[in-house]
Amino acid sequence: MVDLFLRFERQLTRLAMAVAVVMLVVSVSFSFYQVLTRFIFNAPSTWTEVAARTAMIWCVFMAAAATFRGGYMMAVEAIYKVVPQRLLLVLEIAIVLCCLLVLVVLIHYGILMTRRVANQTMSGMNISMAYAYAAIPIGAGFAIVSVVARLLAQLTGREAVGPDLGEAEVEMHDLRQQTMPEAAEDGERGGPRS
């Protein structure tokens, strides 16, 4: 059952990232078109600014699912370093509960806001503002699935508990390991020689 849920989450997160990438490309393209029409042709477009902003909102909320899945949203590495190893899972559960609380609030108020602006149209476009606001509850819904999947993967031992080490962190750790024997030898000799 857990494997099925994790496969479902993986596909859902891929979909969310694909939508986020497309929305980023759309936002950048519309912004570029806005600059062209305003400064090159001296005839600013009336709809591209609103469309670019809406695309960027969708990009941020859809990409949130992948960042939550990787553990990058609420990860404070300093806390992970001071908490004993046996309490890391408790810390991770507390972080997940905080994330879920925020995401449920986003869904609730996002739905309320989307309903409230459903009859309003975006300036320069004859499209309901609800399409922009709908990114909030939809993105938060995707993120909830990602947060739960991350915790399930950690509880079942499929993933390590704690934030993922980035490449820079791994390289720093390797570098420290290589220089530690030299530092130990210098300490035995009475410090580095000048």
SSE ordering: HHHHHHH
Structural class: mainly alpha
Mean pLDDT: 84
Count helical runs: 7
Task: State the share of residues found in helices, binned by percent.
Answer: over 70%
Strand content: under 5%
Summed up, the domain count is 1
Oligomeric composition of the shown chains: single chain
Distance between the termini: 64 Å
E-strand count:
0
Biggest sheet: strands, sense, closure? Answer: none
Q: Please tell me how large the radius of gyration is.
A: 23 Å
- Low-pLDDT sequence parts: 183-189
Shape: elongated
Notes on the protein architecture:
- With about 190 residues, the chain is mostly helical.
- It has one domain.
- Helix content is about 75%, strand content about 0%.
- About 5% of the residues have low confidence.
What can be said about this structure in brief?
The chain has 194 residues and is mostly helical. Helix content is 74%, strand content 0%. This is TRAP transporter small permease protein.
List keywords for this structure.
mainly alpha; 7 helices; about 190 residues
Protein topology:
Elements: H1 2-40, H2 48-70, H3 77-82, H4 88-116, H5 130-133, H6 135-155, H7 167-188
Helix pairs in contact: 1-2, 1-6, 2-6, 4-6
